[in-house]
Amino acid sequence: MKDKGFNMKNLTPAKYFTLIGIVTLIFIGFLYVSPKIFSDYTTTVLGNVYIFIILAISYNLINGVTGQFSLEPNGFVAIGAYVTALLMLSPDIKADMYMIADPLPIIRDIYLPNPFLALIISGIVSALVALTLAFPVFRVRGDYLAIVTLGFGFIIRIFLINNPSISNGSMGLDSIPGFASYFWIGVVCLITVILVYNIVYSKHGRAMKAVRDDEDAALAMGINTFKTKTIAFMTSAFFEGVGGGLLASSIGSISPDQFTFMLTFQLLIIIVLGGLGSMSGAIIGTLLLIGGMEVLRPLDDANWQLGPVHGIPGLRMVVFSLILLLIMLFARRGILGDKEIWDYIKIRRNK
Question: What phi and psi values does residue 106 have, to the nearest 5 degrees?
């Protein structure tokens, strides 16, 4: 007898779809039951976790799987959030809301009350912007790529502030319809995870990993590296735009200050913590960062006490930083590295 890692890639199509169906049913059941078990606060936190899972695994596609050090997520999330908000807000509401300058006629009159179409359009707009951006961005590599994409995030935020006839400037948008309920956020999260997983473990995903491991060697083997990076970039931007739309709907109001580099930094921590290139690692990293920050929230309350330890404003960040430091000291490639969680599951079989 010997141990062998469980490998989903070796499953037959019938077993694979059966497994996906079982996981889907279990997760849908959890989405249906959890509001009846948990408090509103807990389900709100879980909904936020689902949104960040969408953002993290899509960001991991370009940064971890394809190996392109990109710092653009806040820009695409902002695009998705604003496109969704502008589509869902009625002309009358927009006419009353814009205080700094009157909205452009096309901005005022555009109205699409269907939330799912609004999310898809938000993702498509983000993907088209990514396609346009890919031509100058992928002329450079490494740290230069990071600088260029970092600048893109700043440009989007400055554009939103300085064009009040489009975005209502620094005042942002509010009264956004709250179509993104806990259940539907979870459903979109599940769909995103399944789609991105199938991309990562398709021939396109193998090409992305080849570019990550050695771009020059991949080019020599006949892989169109620019096309591969562009596909990854557009796919990542599409789901980041969808996540931005869900974020706008769940919060109900947006402003340019919500889409600073700190959002990108959060996502970068998540995918590095979980393991660059690992989808399940990105999910675990999201649970630890977004969920963990909420679990430790009582530490900021001056009335909280556990033995001799008292809550102090800011203590939560100190404790969480120490936890992250310890994790990265003992898991320098992240919790799962570039593997998936099922790669650590051992099964026994006859020799």
Answer: -70, -35
